[in-house]
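Provenance and format

Records in this collection were gathered into a single text stream. Each protein contributes a sequence line and a token line. The two records reproduced below are adjacent in the stream.
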Amino acid sequence: MDATKKPLRISPELGVYAEKHGIFQTLQVNSAQVYHRMLQCLLVDKPNDPIQYMIDHLKRENNEVARIFLLGPPASGKHTIAKLLCDNINTNVLTLDNMLANGKSEVANIIHRLNNRNKEIPNTLWAKLILERLSKMDCIKRGWILVGFPKTREQALALQEMGIAPEHVVILDAPDTVLIERNLEKRIDMTTGEIYHTTFNWPTSSKIQKRLVKPDGTSEEETAKRLLEYRRVIHGILNSYSKKYHIINADQPSVDVFSQTLSHVQSRHRSNAPYTPRIILHGPPGSGRSLQAALIAEKYRIVNVSCGQLLKEPVAAETRFGEAIKPYVESRQPVPDVIVLKCMTQRLSKLDCSTRGWVMHGFPQDLRQAEMLNDAGFIPNRVFFLDVPDDAVIERLTMRMTDPITGERYHSIYKPAPTSEVYSRCKINPKDAEENVEKALEVYHANVSELEQFYSPAIHVNADQDPYTVFEYIESCVVKPLSKNPNAFV
């Protein structure tokens, strides 16, 4: 046989080793971020001695700190969320007001003089004020959250010209009717500058309550005017940060808004570093593993590895390997683990799996199979458990049926047959009988705890909801950086 025509196989240990020791991430993700940031600063600052400048940059720059723009219309809760973020990630909250309060800043003094003469403040002056504050050591070491600025595309461009680039742009938004109602009930403590709300955030101290006043510009007419102006210019902001902005619904409890904001700002933008997804989906029968695998494979162009399908293909092709499997398939007996593992490793060793990645479902089903897969060198970097209550599983499976003529699947509750004629010819798979489903659930529950421990830390997903909501959550975990735990799944 011509050796050049042999199917190319890549050792599974290659990708595992590189990811375990952080080679791809360290050499390509972090270095790319440092290089990008350094180049950005060089172009903006134009130092006379670029070599010494880069040395100084590496000594002082911290690419892991927060650099966040927190924007939104009036009454969207920007200041409340900024304060909660500050307390949680120990960073600096910056507003135009607190930067202007710095009496030692010459830029701030110029802006005050222009304000006193009712002169328009140039965008470049605002950008200089912000750059001056960001140059302070506390912002360099701990990062910053800039609240409520920029407000226009022109201001965003002025910041970019100064080299001020956020890692995350969070935009809080809600319907105008909600924002107008919120603004009407806003109160401010003139002593501390703290903002309160008569319904959502009322102080318990009677002393504070007495000194609260209604701020200017919060009437219905004034708020509507400000909202109209915000809606008019926000598209310019979105275009300026098209790859960085993330909109969060502010029409929900502040704790939920904060949780979603924190989750987003702690994520890192996806890099071009080599990353080969190796995903295993676990779950009880009827949890939607096949659908989720298909969605993931389609979007990220990785290989969908279905254990059941892989065992059927050689049987249908009547290969020698298929002949060994056929008696077990026909008698509906479990195929021996050694045969299943051989089938799986042959598929996972192919070039497309090694280079593009894979998503596997239907295997492993117990601890022994997981250990065998691990020993063969196929170690996942994402393991999901799709959690569905038993009663929901029984409802999903025992009520589904198939039209033998069209192959279309139906469900008595979620997708009824369109006509009585179609319904009458539909067939129920014997394995979907309630007693068979209950047996399958017993087997799953007998093995799931050991699998959870073996693949700790695994990711649990509430799969008892809309499948596309489930997919969005799985997807968010797939694109996040790999676990820093070197022993994960190994």
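Adjacent record:
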Amino acid sequence: MEGSKELENSLLTQPWASVCFGESVFLAKACFRDTGYILLISDLSSVWYESADAEAVGQRSKELNKRLTVHVSSFLHRLCNLMRPLLTGEPDATTSFSCHRTAGGLSLHVKSELSGLPLYWDFHCCPAPMEMVSRHLVRPLIQMSLALQDQVQELTSLLLQKDAEIEDYRESGAALSRDRLRTEPFWEETFQQNFMAESLPKICSVGEGQAFTSALQQLYMAVTQQEAKQARKRQHSEDTEGPAPAAETTEHPHPPPPSQEDETASSSEGTTPASSPAQKLRLQVAKAKPKKAKGLFS
């Protein structure tokens, strides 16, 4: 059975979405399975979450929907279908969401219908632990910033090369057929100053709910997929590592000398250059293609 740890690992690669409850704007992400669900929600001041297994879902469903008789997996599937339009920016008019803060967290109330009968559900979210906040927000945002910085540097280099190419054409006597296509040479320092003075204030004035646009969602997923991949490698390494065999001093008082094959393999491993984290991240961002998030509504 998929446990809460595996469920959170699946949640990691899901993008954050802007959701509105009344006049309040939040960022949210969720992952549903037949074994339960996990929801993470933030107003960028606090972060809350709820992780519920199938047993807890079944019990709460009975308490809130006394007239409904439905298998837990079917109920989870229905909850998934209710949350999907909300997280994809296409809320269903037949489903209403409301939330209120409590002393110990945040409660999200859902009202819809199933088979002609009213359906109710409450997400009881408590403050997320610091490790979860770091894993799902802080670290990915830092990695995204580094990736975007590398991207800007590469684009700046490309612009400077294009300017040099254009100048060479001009010196060779080439002329534009349409004068409106003429551009001024790119000056990086001037561009940075104009960006700080003009573009940055506009970006900072945008509502907090616009923190993850479509393009940034794709970058977020590319970054977190790398994080999830590294986590799986670490887990696999821990699972395959067994306890070191006890030394049998009576028969082998000294370790046997390494064979020629071992020395060759060790030498080969020691001389192979390792890719830096920045290179790996740049390669992932360059190759990442927009694709539908896996596992969110399966």
